[in-house]
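Task card 7
Instruction: Convert sequence to structure tokens.
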Amino acid sequence: MSKVVKVKSGSIFEEKESYSRVVMVDNWVHVSNTAGRNYKTREMSTDAVEQAKQCFANIEGALASVGATLADVVRSRVVIPYREDAASVMAFVGERFRGIDPASTVTCAPLGAPDFKVEIEVTAYKGAGKAEQERIQVQL
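Output:
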């Protein structure tokens, strides 16, 4: 029988919109789309890379709540509404995922409000960071 763990962070939106920050099914960890707002201070930088840094801090906290780490991430989805921010944000994301190399989707699409400059969602498999990894290079 599968075990499901749902983690709430206390955001008013989790209740209003009926979602969990994290849902873990067995070892699969799904972290909801995460903005670059500091959840404790409610502050958010106007700089896209600074928001991306906060996204990762928020994601790492969410993963830690169920005993997972950034190294366990197998899938990422990054939304950047302003094309002019894409290169700098993705350079930072690339550094944070260096050696982890999850499957990734990046889109430039509007977010819920104009002050949001990046949001990141991840899927992890608890323990993947410590698992034996095989890397294959193919020509597509």
